[in-house]
Every structure is written in C-alpha cells, then in structure tokens.
Amino acid sequence: MKIRGAVLDHIGLPRRYEESRPLTIADLDLDPPGDTELLIRIEAAGLCHSDLSVVDGNRVRPVPMLLGHEAAGIVERVGAAVGDLAVGQRVVLTFLPRCGDCAGCATDGLAPCSVGSAANGSGTLLGGGTRLARDGKPVLHHLGVSAFATHAVVDRRSVVPVDPDVPPVVAALLGCAVLTGGGAVLNAGRPRPGQTVAVVGLGGVGMAAVLTALAHDDVRVVAVDQLSDKVDRAVALGAHEGYLSDGVGELKADVVIEAAGHPAALEAAIGLTAPGGRTVTVGLPRPDARITVSPLGFVAEGRSLIGSYLGSAVPARDIPRFVELWRSGRLPVEALVSSTIGLDEINAGMDELADGKAVRQVIELG
To answer: Of 41, 64, 151, 239, which one has the greatest count of Cβ atoms within 10 A?
Structure first.
C-alpha cells in the first residue's frame, strides 16, 4: 500500500532543521504484514530526543530510515499467526520489542532484549527484513516502529493493546516518555513513603518521571532543569520544589532520576544523591561521553548508580499499570503535551527539541 512518512536520508545536517530539512515527507510503499506482524494506522506520534539524536548524529543509525518510535494507532490488518489482537483495537507501539527467549528477556526488564536490540540497530523488524520502500529501494525501520507516517507494519511484540477509552495522544506517550521516565521511578528508583525524589532534566521523559513520582503517597518531589520555564511547568504540575541546575545548593534526595542525557547532568544527579540513595540514569548521551566522579561516595555512603533503559520496563506488564494510574486521575499524561503539530512541520519540531523549548510535541495523524 501507499503511505506518507518522514524519511531521514542524511545525518548531521546543520541547524536550523527547518531550513536544512533533514527529514523529507515522502510517498512510500509498505508491504503487507507477515504472519507475526500487524498493519497499524498511526493516530498520534511523539517527538522525542531519541529521534533528534539520530537526526543530529549523536546516535548513528543506518539511512535512509523512516523515523518515529513513540506512537499509538489502530490495528487495520492482523498476520495469520497473531491470535490475540483484532482489527479495530487501539495499541501502544513500543520501541524495544522483547523476543521472550534471550538472556535479556529473563531479567524482568533489567536488561534489554538482545534480539530486539540487534534488530533495532540494523533497522529491521524483529522477525527480520524491512517492509518499507521508496522508488523501489528499501527504507529502514526506526526501532521497529517508524511511526512518523500514516501507517506502519510492526511485529506483534512491538505493541501493547489498550482500551478504547485511552485517547491516542495519551496512548502514544505511554510508549516512550511515560514508560521510560515513569518506569525509572517505579522499577529502578522505587521510592518509599517519606523519601525525596529529584528529577534532573525536564523534557518529556523527565516530566513523566515527575508525574509518576507525584502519584506516590507521601513522596516529596523536586524538579531541576537549566530552563526556568520547565522548572515552573513542573511546579505547576505539582512538584513540591523546583530549582535551576546551578541553584540546588545543599539539596539531597533519596532517589535522583537523570533524564537529560548529558554528562554534566549525570554528575549533578550523583552529587544530589543522599547517603544510601539511588541515582537512576535514563538519558542517552553521545557514545563517547564521559563523566568524572569519585567512587568513594558510593562505597563510604552506600550510594548506587543504576542504568535504566526504557525505564527497566516490560511494556506488556507496565503499560497497563500506567493506564490505571491515568484512569484514576493520578497520572495526568495529557499535561506532558506542549504542542500538537502536523507531519509537514516535523523539521521545525526538531528545532524546538534541539532548542530545549518543548516537553512533548505530538504529531496528530488522525
């Protein structure tokens, strides 16, 4: 079938992206789903720093690639071997499929699926190969999803069904921002009543961590960022205190979530961690990034540094947990949306991300 989508042909083009236009809105051919796959009509897709990091070259991926990894949509066709989903169901697309058989899948979310990670790195679906083409030449998949498009073919293991009462924009953000930031709080930070949770970096992932921490009873939540507008937004959403990065003073927290993806932010997060506390890092810096930190504090003060990819989540387990928090009113996912844009505005949207202005921009595709 014919679809329209945002294809990245050249990595590392100069800013501003609205002018250099690294993403081209193109007509593509999409093959029908294989036996273990689904055809999804994309309803909403979020712009995430993981997309920007491919555009700017911080996370090198093979090209040409159809970007987009945080989305929700409606099942329009079901592969012959898929027996638990039906046409018309709404699903959340998740960017790290789990094969269910490898050593990573046996860690209950602690480590990523090695098979899914390999497929993501090569730009293929979990079952192998590509389903996209432009002018007869293959186009690669972004993290098994490629959601900046009208439709996508994905592996069954890349989706989690949700009930119809979950709006498309909410469902989309559950697949990355909430799963990553909120999962880091629930699965890795695990704050207890009376403790303080600090979040460093208030983009979509960091703000989702703030909201998830606030959903806990009797937990003090502190928000930290370089931009005063983001700190003010976090406080408006309920954070008990907010600080600019250079103004935290002697603040200490029992759980610190680092969601900025920058070495300086991780060093700051470690410095904010109280004795006996946990620093959880979910940001994705450049592969060559390094930090300088004394190991003595980890030993002498019993502190921990924990890496958390995709919020240490198992999507099929954790997305329903977040849906229930949203449904109960304790997790206002809609508050993460800073703006909605059209597919044709995606390059300008990447500029907004790079400028640090956006929390979560969402492309509404209908």
So the answer is: 239
- CA dihedral defined by 257, 261, 266, 272, rounded to 10 degrees? -40
Bridge partner residues of 363 (DSSP): 45, 341
What does the DSSP assignment read for 134-181?
ETTEEEEESTTT--SBSEEEEEGGGEEEE-TTS-HHHHHHIIIIIIII
Query: Under a CB-based contact definition with an 8 Å cutoff, are residues 259 and 271 in contact?
Result: no
- CATH superfamily, domain 181-309, is NAD(P)-binding Rossmann-like Domain (3.40.50.720)
Calculate mean pLDDT across residues 313-319.
96
Q: Which residues, other chains included, contact 109 with Cβ-Cβ below 8 Å and sequence gap of 6+?
A: 183, 187, 310, 311, 312, 313, 314, 317, 318
pLDDT of residue 302 exceeding 90, the answer is yes
Q: Where are the domains of the chain?
A: 2-164+332-364, 181-309
32-36, 219-223, 356-360, range with the lowest pLDDT: 356-360
Structure tokens at 81: 């071997």
Question: Whole-prediction pTM value?
Answer: 0.95
Which helix H or strand E contains 214, and what residues bound it?
Answer: helix 204-214
366 has pLDDT over 80: no
Q: How far apart are CA 343 and CA 136, in angstroms?
A: 23
pLDDT tops 80 at residue 13: yes
pLDDT exceeds 80 at position 320: yes
What is the rounded distance in angstroms from the CA atom of residue 235 to the CA atom of residue 40?
A: 37
